[in-house]
Amino acid sequence: MGTSWKGGGTVRGGGEVGRSQRRFMRRQLSLVGVERGVLDQSGLSWRFLAFLAVCWCGWLFTGGSGLVAQEGGPSKPREVREGVVGVGLVEVEAVRKAASFPARVNMVEGNLEYTLVNPNGPVHEALLVTEARAEDIELGARLLGFSRDRKGRDEKGGTGNLTKDALQRAPKPEGVEVLVEVVWKGGDGVEKRRGLLDLLVRRAADGKPFSREGAWVYTGSKVMGNGVFLASGSGILGSMLLASEPLFVGTFEGNRDDSVWSPAKDLLPVIGTLVRVEMSAKPAR
């Protein structure tokens, strides 16, 4: 059971070490003046960097049992430019409240089950592939207030076990609704931007169009009993289905059916094209 702390993350573990770590992180967060998911734009650069440094140090001090437990933890944060901090390949922008990272188009036809995977994931059924580490994306999401402790996700929906039964039993995802977009340069050099859902096609057996109601929900992945961060171990970062590994999933119609999804070939650039995945706060309705 994790204990919430002011930065929007969680320190796991109990005993004197856990209590000392929680006191340390609360004290440091108080010093840099950052509340959960809210960054003061005055003195943005140093405050944001200080907050990232505290999170990174907290990970090290807890021996991989801090924000998420994975050997090595997230990458060491660095300042990229004014107001933008890098965590590995992930760039976090406090003013826009957005996190972005590079990826490549992996499929333009065929059946899809995942929107985003690492090279060690199921690339044969994924739209995009990225080298960005799950831990780095998770840290960026927590800093922006997107991620919380995951509860109620079905452990049986997983790699090699994304069965119809597991999908039907999977509970409604709990998390923060986010806007996920894909950006790339076209052949004419003009930037193209598409919502991730726009790059997917759903095939209905009865020929009726699917509803576009729903959202991408950042749920965060989960830490297994052996200390492995599930998204990192499986290489699965995003899915339109209610799988248990991803950092974000969809609440769209068809999220319990792994046979209806394919790439929107007419809208996608060619396989191998470098794109940037941007995850930001969903605009208020």
Description:
It is globular, with a radius of gyration of 19 Å. It has one domain (3-281). It has an eight-stranded mixed beta barrel with strand order 6-8-7-13-14-12-9-16. A two-stranded antiparallel sheet has the order 1-2. The protein has a two-stranded antiparallel sheet with strand order 11-15. The chain has five helices and 16 strands. The chain starts with a strand and ends with a strand. It is 20% helix and 25% strand. Strand 3 and strand 4 (84-87) form a beta hairpin. By secondary structure, it is an alpha+beta fold.
Provide a compact summary of the structure.
This protein is α+β, with helices and mostly antiparallel strands. The protein has helices spanning 15-32, 44-61, 134-143, 164-169, 230-234, and strands at residues 3-4, 10-11, 77-81, 84-87, 90-93, 98-105, 114-117, 126-129, 176-185, 191-195, 200-202, 216-218, 236-239, 248-250, 261-263, 274-281.
